[in-house]
Amino acid sequence: MARDIFRRRVQGLLAEAGIAINGADPWDMQVLDERVFPVVLSRGSMGLGESYMNGWWDAAALDHFFHRLLGTGLAERVTCWRTLCSCLWARLVNLQRPSRAFQVGRHHYDIGNDLYRRMLDERLIYSCGYWKNATTLAEAQEAKLELICRKLGLTPGMRVLDIGCGWGGAARYMAEKYGVSVVGVTVSREQAAYAREWCQGWPVDIRLDDYRTLRETFDRVFSIGMFEHVGFKNYRLFMEVVRRNLRPDGLFLLHTIGSNTTESTIDPWIDRYIFPNAVLPSKRQLCQSLEGIFILEDWHNFGVDYDTTLMAWFRNFASRCRRSARSTATASTGCGNTTCSPAPAPSGLAAPRSGSSCCRLPGWPAATRPRAEGSTIGGLDGFLANSPRFFLTICLYCLSCGAAAWLPDMRLAMPMEPRQTFFAMAGHGSALYDLYFRGV
Length: 440
Known about the structure:
The protein is an alpha/beta fold. The chain has helices at residues 2-16, 36-53, 62-71, 81-92, 103-109, 114-119, 137-152, 169-178, 189-198, 235-244, 268-273, 283-290, 305-333, 379-384, 387-399, and strands at 30-31, 57-58, 159-163, 181-186, 204-208, 218-224, 246-255, 295-301, 408-413, 420-426, 432-438. It has 15 helices and eleven strands. The strands form three sheets. The protein has a seven-stranded mixed β-sheet with strand order 5-4-3-6-7-9-8. The protein has a two-stranded antiparallel sheet with strand order 1-2. Strands 10-11 form a two-stranded antiparallel ribbon.
């Protein structure tokens, strides 16, 4: 009786988003275990994600499922007490304090670089590409790097700081194309080791360090895809650190995902399985943090390009893993069947579901869904065994902002004198609004 009540409640909520239980549309929820209903209602997004990992439900098109689910605001209507406690705790303590600075590096990036080599472009740029005139992922990422360099006004001989340098892709590009020297900081040991090798021979210094320890002088400072880990209690400090390290006539560019609402925490699912201690900044939080420190000269929103970037990552990962699985199967089992192909990726993200094979990629059959207990997966083998769920979580991370998501590219200058500034922000949909004003 109680389970029927839970089912009807979930069914009613999903119906508001045009999602049916066991329906025929690719975004419909196919329930494989009735335990999913009370878990979803009691644990929200965490229950939804972990029940999927446990094989309790599925959908032929996960991206469409989440687009409908989050686009109608259903996630906000299912809130559990754990979420409320997390919000309260985040307001009481600094979750991104220096003693926890390296946690996200160990959790997310130190699993090994093989995963990212299979997923990303050659430079391993792990942020949104710029697809305005691009047709491939490599073109989109290079276009984004070129856009950043032009906004920073790089010239040969400049000294540049990269906060959150990743695998060194942007640092080497600037050194190679613009003749600048770059200092890059990261909290990931794996990233640091790879970046040092990738940038060998170029004037690039990669450091394993927390940005708050920096006390040097640079002509330009930029940060790509790192600000999401700073935390709302540290936004002002972050801006102060940048200014402390920037020449009086320098420029700072910040590239980050943002939220149209001010929050103190991120979705519990994302916090456990993707980015621990992360939070998406709002426009209000960003502007407050730079007030009196910088003049905002440019705000460029191309968040819609993240969908194209995500799909390119998925295609890279799926195709490269298929080739790897085929080679591994032939070498280890002597299959030798040239017509044999690994099983296709399971549901979601437009990946085909039909087909069979004698050489199956580990983890893609539904019977090998990962366990929900652990929050850290070690090594490439672990991620290969979890690959479809990995892309589910990436998809949910970006879709969690809904239609109101924005991804600004901000250029900031020291407040030395009044100057004309440019501000462009995106509202719902694809509309852009340009406002011009003078700095203080």
